[in-house]
Structures are given as C-alpha cells and as structure tokens.
Write a structure and sequence with these properties.
mainly alpha; Serine Threonine Protein Phosphatase 5, Tetratricopeptide repeat; elongated; 281 residues; 0% strand
Length: 281
C-alpha cells in the first residue's frame, strides 16, 4: 500500500535536450563532447533506453576525465549521472561504485555538509535498502536528513523527501509509530510548498492514512485518505490504479469504523446490564 520511494536525480546538466531525433543528432556529432553525450543520454532516457543512457554517460565520463582530469567538479557530476543511470537500470553494485566516487569528490569540493552530499547519501541509502542492508540505509537516510535540515531548513522539498524516505523505511518494517511522525512532517512541508493538488502531497497523505490504519486510529486514517482521494481525483484518470486503490482502502476503513461503533455500543449496553444485575433491593 505504501508508495515506493522515488529516487531523486541530483545530476547537473549544462544543456537541455534538443528537439532533433536520435539519428539526426548522432549524425551531427562527429566528435561529441561530454556535454553533447549528456544531451544524447537525456534523449535516450526519454525513450527509456537505459543501456543507451549508460553508454552515453560512460562516454561523457571518459571525455570529462580527458579534458578536466579526475579531480574536477564536472567529473564528479559525470560520476553521479552514471550512478543514477545504473540505479535506474537496476545495476545496484555499479551504481554504488559511482556514487562513492562522486561522493568523495563532492565532499572534497563542497564539504561534508552540502546538499549535494546529502543527495548522494539518500541515493546510496536507497540502494542499501533494496539490498536489505537496513543498518547502512538507515544511517545514510539520517545523515541526509541532518544535512538538509542544517543547510536547507525545515521548509524545503528535499527535507520533505528525507522525511518521506525515513517514514517509508520504518513503515516497511511495520514500525508504524516510528513512521507516522516522518510522514506527517513530509505532508506538512508539501502542503506549504507544493500545489494543493500535487501528487507528492497525495502520496504523503496516503502514507499517513496507512500508518493510522495499522495503529487502529480509523477516523484519522479516513481523514487522511479522503485528502488523498480529493487530490488524485483532480489530477488522475478515474481508472488510475492508485486512485482505485485509495477508494478501496477508504471503503475498508469505513467498515472498520462501523464495526468499532457496533462493538462500542455492545460494550456499553453489556456494562449497563451488568451494573443493573448487581443492584439489590
């Protein structure tokens, strides 16, 4: 029920994709630079051609290392681009290898407490989480949050992302009491900074609802899920699976509330009759 943590792309590009086709672009680039390989990578990414994306980023990295050297900010960005591409392709070991390379350089250039460092920590944590290395994942999620709070402040989208990731971490192990405060902080920030009908806000509401449901606080779960459905009904097709799932979950919560009311009513009357039975003349 809880949405997957979406990976953040902390890559930096100096150019945007042009409108030409891949064939035309390839023909034009007789001696592509690193920047041009990055543009090609973005074009392939739009077409979900992950292997081609990786191929372009590898060539971009090679060009960067030749022109800028190993100890350069642009080389660090190339490492990070490549790590993102490997992560997207599911090649977690390769992704981790290049995130570590990028991390070392970014720590050197920006210091240990820079938002770019925090983003790499977050991405590495996602990989460790997927590999069931939960101790390392939790440590990196916490380090990422600490940096973002210190450098970006409470009311920042990346800070909200860190709260969301920690909430998901705890919810995945069914520690809903620990997860709930993080999801609530994420939704508070997203309400302030994003549009009222933003999908990320809907996701945060949904995760809050799930936590309350598992903590048997059905009324609060219902309120949060109603907000999820309101947002998703505005921005999604009626046949969207996440919207359909939220509506099904709302029906289940309403059933639980109804059962709870009946049980409470039965308990009240049972206590009433038992107290009457003890009355003596």
């Amino acid at each position: 029920m809880i949405s997957n943590v979406s990976s953040s792309n902390s890559a930096f590009f100096e150019s945007k994709p042009c409108a030409s086709t891949l064939t035309d672009r390839n023909h034009q680039l007789k001696h592509p630079s690193a920047d041009e390989y990055n543009v090609l990578a973005l074009l392939y990414k739009e077409k979900n051609l992950n292997k081609k994306v990786i191929e372009c980023y590898l060539k971009a990295l090679s060009a960067r290392e030749e022109t800028c050297g190993l100890l350069d900010k642009k080389t660090a960005n190339s490492y990070n681009n490549l790590a993102d591409a490997y992560a997207e392709d599911g090649s977690r070991l390769q992704a981790l290898k290049f995130y570590i390379k990028a991390l070392r350089l970014k720590e050197k250039f920006f210091g240990l407490n820079h938002p770019q460092v925090a983003s790499i920590y977050s991405n590495m944590a996602n990989i460790y989480f997927e590999d069931n290395n939960f101790e390392k994942a939790l440590n990196l999620y916490k380090k990422s949050l600490k940096i973002r709070l210190e450098e970006l402040g409470t009311d920042n989208i990346l800070t909200a992302k860190s709260y969301q990731e920690l909430g998901y971490f705890y919810a995945s192990s069914e520690e809903y009491e620990l997860a709930l405060p993080f999801f609530e902080k994420a939704v508070d920030i997203r309400i302030k900074l994003l549009k009222v009908s933003h999908p990320d806000t809907a996701t945060s509401y949904n995760n809050v609802a799930i936590c309350y449901y598992h903590l048997f606080q059905y009324k609060k779960a219902k309120d949060a899920l109603v907000n999820t459905i309101k947002i998703r009904s505005k921005i999604l097709n009626s046949k969207d699976t996440t919207l359909i799932s939220a509506k099904k979950n709302l029906k289940e919560i309403k059933k639980q509330i109804s059962r709870e009311k009946k049980q409470n009513g039965f308990s009240f009357f049972r206590q009433f009759f038992e107290s009457k039975a003890t009355v003596t003349s």
